[in-house]
# Entry
Amino acid sequence: MRILLIEDEADLLASLAKALREEGYAADTASDGEEGLYKATGVAYDAIVLDVMLPRMDGWEVLRRLRESKRTPVLILTARDAARERVRGLDNGADDYLVKPFDLEELFARLRAIIRRATGQARNTIEIGEVVVDTAARRVTLAGNPVALTAREYCLLEFLALHRGETVTRTALYEHLFDEDDDSLSNLLDVHVSNLRKKLGHEFIDTRRGQGYCIE
Amino acid sequence: MKFFHSIRWRLQLWHGLLLVLALAGFGLTAWELQRANQMGRIDRELEQRMGIIEGTMRPANAPPGERPPPPGKMRLQPREQDLFNGLPGQRFYYIIWLADGRKGNVSESAPANVPRPERMPGPPAFRSRGPYRECFHDTPDGACVMVGRDITDEAAGIRRTAWLLSGAGGAVLLLGLAGGWWIAARSLRPMADIRATAEKISGGDLSQRIRTTDSESELGRLSLDLNHTFARLEAAFARQAQFTADASHELRTPVAVVLTQTQSALARERPAADYRESLAACQRAAQRMRGLIESLLVLARFDSNEPAEAFEPCDLSRIAADSVELLEPLANEKNVSLALDVSPARCLGDAGQLAQAVSNIASNAIRYSLPGGCVRVTAHSEAGRAVLSVADNGPGIPPEDLPHIFERFYRAEKARSGGEGHSGLGLAITKAIVEGHGGSIEVKTELGCTFTVRLPSAP
# Structure
């Protein structure tokens, strides 16, 4: 899952990006509205965390322009908690709203929720045969037994599971699993896929030659 | 009794009292005039008849060929007799008492048992006795002539007049009271509106206004004045609410930094360098909050109108020079040159506060200058004022922002630039300081912008 953070307070931006990466997300950052809009329209993010008070272009404008072309889930992050502001945010196309100061856990939970809703999942567990992916707890079980996965492996599995039945291209996987600061080599993707197969069964992930991967 | 405290009831009470007094005065006067008039007429008729009778009693007036009547006796001619044969109830009568107390001539119409009046020398006198009015006169020879008449009808007439006057007075009183009640109600009606509005406002709805279309009457003017006051009150409350919201908003971001940094740092074991980084970020956030809290306290002190500390003579040029020296590092960092051009400009004030004001304006100018720009600080004395100005050749302030730059938390750029410790309160504090010193501050923007502070000068 790749997330864009648009926030002008440098310390907050850095700590959020770090925390998200530790959760296994790929996190890109932008410190003003123009840069944020540029990135948001250029990359297929799974979610965007958008501060309202931004230099150069405020969050409302970013949201308005983004909605002209993209349906990326947006979580508005702001210091103003007047009901009027919340209504305005949601009416202008935001998917959720969080008021500063917030707990990291709540931010993560809300991000998971808007990503889940955007992929059409109503519940936070995905069952694929004997494999159960719990997107809230970020845990995977095989026939009831917990499976130990690295953060990256989990993200790869979650992404494929959320797009179950679709063929996910390698490009899409790179776009959604690695952020702009990652310098992972392309064969790392194959390493993660191969590790997942070892842990969950070889047939679990299909390789579509020249196209990508798929979970049936 | 509660209604005695009501203005309307008190107005009505006084109004009614005055009306009763006026009506009673008029009524009594009218009745008395009518009665006196009636009695006067009756008395004149009695006197006239008395004259006739006394005339016939005088021996010299006896008709020729007849013996003059003895004292106390007389004979009336038939024409004169008719004078005593009026309608029943209006009939005149006469009684003559002789000097020895016996009755002389008595008319047929005279009532029985008429007592002889007290002897009273002089002109004819009058008395009222029951339904009779009588005129009597003691003649020089000791006899007493009395002429009287029954005045039952006239007395009834006078009583009728009294009733009529009372009735009319009562009707006028009722009309007057009703009219007074209506007028009082009408003129006090705006009071009910004023009261209802004031109640709603004290209940917390500051947007209420008194409905009034009339700007001339006393209550109309009062309503306008009150509406004006309410509007100012509402604006002050809105400003205060906005200020509180802004202040809490400004504090939320640094708190968010502290929360995310600490929650993230504590989530797992980390190398020492990570903890140091988190602590440094928390420290920056805390310093920003400290700066904001100090600014808020300064403003709160100005808002509460705390008595100014004793002002001392100080020189604005010295203060400007000191501030410029302190700002050199910031200017160097921004690659902005600082120019100073001062001549003595003495004023009364708190040197510390004035230095803060000058440094706020100057650091603002440096911050908004482009690299390579120049900020020029001047101070001089002019026409009883100590004048300080800070001019830069930066991009200037957009016209739409110009009226707002002294507002609290207003920023030309609609975003925080918290990293520089810039809270959006600097110019508001500057304005509060300058006005606290009885001075004024203005800003012009043309080829950069110029802030000018004028303070009353001191010898």
